[in-house]
Amino acid sequence: MTRQRALVYIHFAAVLFGLTGVFGELIQASAAVITLGRALFAVASLAVFARIQRRPLLGMLTPAQLFVLVIAGALLAVHWVTFFISVKVGGIAIATLGFASFPAFITLFEGLLFREKVRMAEWLVLALVTAGLVLVTPSFDFADQGTVGLAWGLLSGLSFALLALTNRRAASGMDPMQVACWQNAIVSLIVLPFAVGQLPTLAALDWLWLGLLGIFCTGLSHYLFVSSLTRLNARSAGLVIALEPVYAIGFAWALFAQQPSLRMLAGAALIVAAIVWSGLRKAAH
């Protein structure tokens, strides 16, 4: 793995992350069905990638680790379901920008729940994200579909922030590929009762989109992300992954004519700037 190849991997991973909303828009199914299909195909693809890298996925887990994986899997299920609801209701750009609020939620949780000292710079990150979300909000009226979609996107960002804090504090020392595979398996079990009855009515084309979503936007993207970190530091990786909302907006514009307004673009710029700055600061510490 060279640094140049690692940069290609991380950019490709960011593009695949940005495509997630596109598949959410294409698949004519409920958020629970999309989440189940994504998780099942992700488990299969992660098992293949783990075999390529000769990483054991079924290693012994302590009861404490298994408990953490169950909690994290539940949070991941909530994150995906709320994100795909946001895509269906508000569109790809709105959903992605709502989800991109997660660094602000992490700052809040670290200060309020874990009693960690929040520095002035971190409050500024929170202010930037908040200002960006105000600009992105179509109107402050829940009769507006875009506003409802953004609310679901914010819930997606909230659950992802809790997931990140859970993994950061309790899943350390575990193989990232193993963590991802187990969490996807748990997601499958959680959403199965809500989605299994709808699977027989799913069109063949939707199965194709689900396969691409699970294999490429989940399994492959995670494989590329983990592989790139063997040569890249957190700062470089964070800078590239912060481009996910940009890619998502571009895809929505090109494929579905979901043209962003200047106000939305300004809000997106503030949110992306906050994510980049947050990543740079965490890498420095």
From TrEMBL:
Coiled coil: none annotated. The keyword Transmembrane applies. Keywords: Membrane, Transmembrane, Transmembrane helix. It holds the Pfam family EamA. The chain crosses the membrane at residues 7-24, 30-52, 64-85, 91-114, 121-140, 146-165, 177-195, 207-225, 237-256, 262-280. It comes from the Bacteria. GO terms for cellular component: membrane. Residues 6-136, 148-277 form the EamA domain. This is Predicted permease, DMT superfamily. It comes from Bordetella pseudohinzii. The lineage of its organism: Bacteria, Pseudomonadati, Pseudomonadota, Betaproteobacteria, Burkholderiales.
